[in-house]
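ok, trying the design again with the full structure, not the truncated one.
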């Protein structure tokens, strides 16, 4: 009877260890969010939130891994309208060429690439271009003319640039909660195994034959 009891306890302990190992492996695999495997934007030129003195007609996007050329798109929205840029992919670098705008203000860059794992990734960011000085204008001439007309500041006519928005990463945040869910499931499995072990020990103890009591000696 003791031998059978030991086998049952050993089987339950082995089952609990197996559940713990399987649960730990599942948490390790699933806690790595799928978005973490996708390539992401590392840097750009112009950079996000940059303020340029002159407009540009070429921008570069650098990603964490080699992107797939098919499906790569870049659109630049300037103060004069939208422009679908001509893109060239070289490994992890995407070069976009677009017609520049002479109007100062905010420029919105929207990009969409295919990650090296085949998953599409997209995002956006902004940069601003300052107003250009008129050629041949003498410093202070515009200011003196404004004061003569009504004392207005020469810089008041400049169109203020909207504050740039933060660069989009295109990464889904839903996977951040997955480690907590599977961690809780692992704790529940370990707890269930512990309950099974406790119940088995109690049943074995209750069903174990008791040694007969010796009666009082005559």
């Amino acid at each position: 009877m003791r031998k059978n009891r030991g086998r049952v306890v050993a089987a339950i302990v082995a089952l609990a260890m197996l559940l713990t190992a399987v649960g730990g492996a599942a948490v390790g695999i699933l806690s790595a969010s799928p978005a973490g495997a996708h390539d992401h934007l590392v840097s750009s030129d112009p950079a996000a939130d940059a303020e340029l003195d002159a407009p540009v007609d070429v921008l570069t996007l650098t990603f964490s891994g080699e992107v797939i050329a098919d499906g790569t798109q870049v659109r630049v929205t300037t103060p004069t309208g939208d422009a679908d840029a001509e893109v060239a992919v070289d490994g992890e670098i995407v070069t976009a060429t677009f017609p520049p705008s002479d109007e100062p203000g905010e420029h919105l860059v929207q990009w969409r690439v295919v990650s090296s794992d085949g998953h599409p990734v997209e995002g956006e960011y902004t940069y601003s271009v300052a107003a250009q000085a008129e050629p041949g204008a003498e410093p202070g001439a515009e200011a003196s003319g404004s004061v003569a007309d009504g004392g207005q500041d020469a810089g008041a006519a400049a169109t203020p640039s909207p504050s740039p928005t933060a660069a989009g990463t295109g990464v889904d945040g839903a996977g951040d909660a997955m480690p907590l869910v599977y961690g809780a499931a692992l704790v529940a499995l370990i707890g269930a195994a512990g309950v099974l072990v406790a119940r088995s020990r109690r049943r074995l103890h209750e069903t174990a034959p008791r040694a007969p009591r010796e009666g009082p000696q005559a």
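Keeping the full-length input from now on. The first helix runs from residue 2 to 30.
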